[in-house]
Amino acid sequence: MENTCCFCAREQEPGRPQKLIHNIITIKNTEMKRLILSLTALVLSTAMFAQKKSDDLAKFATETIDQGKLKQNNPEEVKFIVTNISKEPLIIEQANPTCGCTIGDYTKTPIAPGSTGYVSAKFNAANLGHFTKTLTVKFAGADDIKNIVITGDVLAAEEYDKWKAENPSPALVKTAPAAPATPVQKMVVAPVKKTKTAKTVSSVKTTQTKPVAVSSKPAVKS
Predict the structure, then answer these.
(1) Same domain (yes/no): 20, 75
(2) What is the domain count for the chain?
């Protein structure tokens, strides 16, 4: 009976339910804080290691090239020039046409920051009419794919020749090569050497004539 009474007395201890509730709330708050911290760390790490967009790494001089009029079965190649605008080497992983009627090529080596590479494309021009062909370009480190486009019109041989005759290409004016400039010869003035004029002293030998003595005595007559 005493034990039962003690147990009943403990259960009826004032303030015990409030302490239990307080402890439960504290535990839940602690777990919630840990969960929030874990989610925050996950978001930050994901943002740090997130891949960039193609436009952050590379810039094409133009993303669409209009080839104009093409003669049937006479394909012409075009080149898309791409510049590395990032601070790290740019690598073109893939450059694929969307159909088998177009072939492409691209720079295989890493492109240094500020330098340029290329993606080329050639449509086979087998079918007459207007065409629009897309190539997909994948850069290393980018999570998206860049599209570039070639477009134009394929004409039959006769129609193309007629159009070409009506729209001749501007003639190139050939100018005769300019004659090489004659080098100007510098006149070198030799310094005048001052020559010392030798002074010639002509020694004149003067002969001294002795005076003839004249006798003042009269001549003796014989």
Answers:
(1) no
(2) 2
The tally of CA atoms less than 13 A away on the side-chain side of residue 47 is 6
pLDDT digits (tens, 9 = 90+) for 109-140: 999 999 999 999 999 999 999 999 999 999 99
Return the H-helix or E-strand segment holding 151.
Answer: strand 146-155
Tokens in use for 208?
């001294």
**Residues 34, 89 within the same domain:** no
| Separation between Cα atoms, residue 134 and residue 25, nearest integer Å | 61
Q: What is the DSSP string of 66-110?
A: EEEEEETT---EEEEEEEE-SSS-B-EEEEEESSTTEEEEE--SP
Q: Identify whether 217 is part of a domain.
A: no
Rounded to whole angstroms, how far apart are CA atoms 61 and 146? 13
CA-angle at 189, arms to 186 and 194, nearest 5°: 170
pTM of the model: 0.56
CA distances in angstroms from 116 to 63, 86, 105, 107, listed in the order given = 15, 12, 15, 9
Q: What DSSP designation does 138 have?
A: E
Question: What burial class does residue 172 get, using C-beta atoms within 10 Å of its C-beta: 0-12 exposed, 13-18 middle, 19+ buried?
Answer: exposed
pLDDT (tens digit per residue) in 57-115:
999 999 999 999 999 999 999 999 999 999 999 999 999 988 878 888 999 999 999 99
Distance CA 58, CA 119 (A): 12
Q: Is 36 helix (H, G, I), strand (E, B) or coil?
A: helix
